[in-house]
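Regression report. Comparing outputs from two consecutive submissions.

Submission 1:
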Amino acid sequence: MNGASATGGAEPPSTIEATWNRFWFTPADPGPLAIVRMLTAAVALVLLASYSADLDAWFGPGGMIPADPRAAWRAPFSWSLFDLTRSVGSLRLLFGITAVAMALLGVGLATPVVSVAAPILWASLLHRGPMLAGPADDCVAVLLWCLAIAPSGAAWSLDRWFTGRTAPPRPSVRGRIARGLMQVHATAISLATLLAQLKGDVWWDGTAAWWLAARADSRVVDLTSLFARSEYACNLVTHGITAFEGLFAVGIWFTTTQMPVARAGLVAWPFIGLCAGEPWWGVAMAIVCIPPACSR
């Protein structure tokens, strides 16, 4: 029989259907997403500061990124609000609006509007100079779009404070969907990073950590002296990075391992970012770990 059991009752959902519904549509506590909101906005403001020093030189009239190269780097159908700026004043104004949007998102003021405006403005900035965007910029973009779906101002926000609400925020399906999307993207990023690394022999022979540390132009912490004294330390860091990335991509999906793997990611991802010379990428990946690390 279709849709009913032999006794006339509705058939219980299949295991796959139940798992799917539980993952995407079980209401989730918006509290951890409030932490994600604040930290994502902070990282975005730091990255915006790195753009500000050369904003006119890159994007201003007669800047180093004119229309033709910009179009060649862009994905099909991508667009940017920054294309509409025709003067240094309008460019700085739109850039300032982007910074204000991130600040408002961080404090949770006017979040129903700001949480949607922030990812649009951020994407516009990245599309204006796609060749300048780094891994941290892309991760922040993912986090901002997920926050646009979530009830971003439901907890730890000025919006909540101004309305005088004292009861704990209610679990939300939108929050669950946002968390699910963050988890999917984090897995994809982790796997893509791992596969890219395993194409190089240095990640197999254990010397990749040394080569990362030896890049004086991008390193944040100089670990060359440590690795020069101990080949075992170099091998341990190299293989530890790849092992964690594989463990994270798999372990984040199982109930028994999700919390310990996510909590390990709060430390491991920033460390990997430091080793790779991409500290803010490491911080952004750690931010993704906050909701599962706070799960009960």
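Submission 2:
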Amino acid sequence: MSPSFIPEPVARQPWHVIAPLVALVLFGCAVLYSAAGGNMQPYATSHLIRFALFLAMALVMARIPQQVYKFMAYPAFGGVLVLLLLVEMLGAIGGGSQRWLSLGFMTLQPSELMKPTIVLVLARFYDTLPAAMTASWRGLLPAGALIGVPVGLVLLQPDLGTSLAIVFGGVVVMFLAGLPLRWFLGAAGAAAIAAPLAFFALLHDYQRNRVTTFLDPESDPLGAGYHITQSKIAIGSGGIFGKGFGNGSQSHLEYLPEAHTDFVFATMAEEWGMIGGLFVLIVFGLILRWGMRVASNGKDRFSRLLAAGMTATIFFYIAVNLMMVMGLAPVVGIPLPFMSHGGSSMMTVMICFGTLLAADRWQTRSTGIG
């Protein structure tokens, strides 16, 4: 029972997840404040404002009925596909890639929107597909097309990291929908055979350099391996308790590239050490455990697949970024959720979070709670 002076819609929220999430974002603001040389501008203030706006958006999403999510699945997918096509025709070019649409008041990266959208549309697809047909070509080919078309458009930008995120979320939904395991093992075997050909024939030069640098970053420590080398130096120099807030030499002396975005965990670890890293991992663990609990408690196939896919998408962000900054994966430009500075990635993760809030609410309403 909540105190009577707390409004019921407020008391009903899963504060055991929201409160640690807010603490993580505030911690991220402290790291961004330090990365800017002890200034709230230009990173920390905008990070806080974006989170507040997107948290409000997530809370609104939590109130949306399940039928609306089902109804909007295919229109949303079609809308994001149109945006991806517009990127090819009108998109802004930055860093050698064409990924953004300028809307005047903001710059939008439509490929980010496809990460939660692919989960939504596949959850809807398998919800309407008779269970007996899941293990047939009717459960495979349409889903493969739903994944393949946007992935192809994103690869044209080119953006390998986002393409892999879309594939990961989609494949998780397909696997949990009940497609035979042998199909996934066969696809993995085919991918392993095709990987050498793709490495030489399909990847761009900078993408090949990322892979070779990942395998041996010390071979070119001042060139292609610079990012990973400086990141590992920053993390290692933090030790257990870190150098202290505002005392990170790697970020302040600008040895560490992208200290406020892709490598924000390294910035944090240098100043806060292993203790800070454990706090970040614990909060992420709480969020992911809650997401999987929402999925396992779902009362219908759509809810279970939707919640599991959104949780998997958040997991992909976390796992790939942490592996990347520690030299366990190639540098692919995946930001760390709730800590890295960036509007598009924050929006994507909060859409996933808002969808999980909605799925959690559908469950409580179906059991007569709230």
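Expected: both submissions complete independently.
Actual: both completed, but the second showed a warning that disappeared on reload.
Relevant detail on submission 2: The chain has one domain: 15-365.
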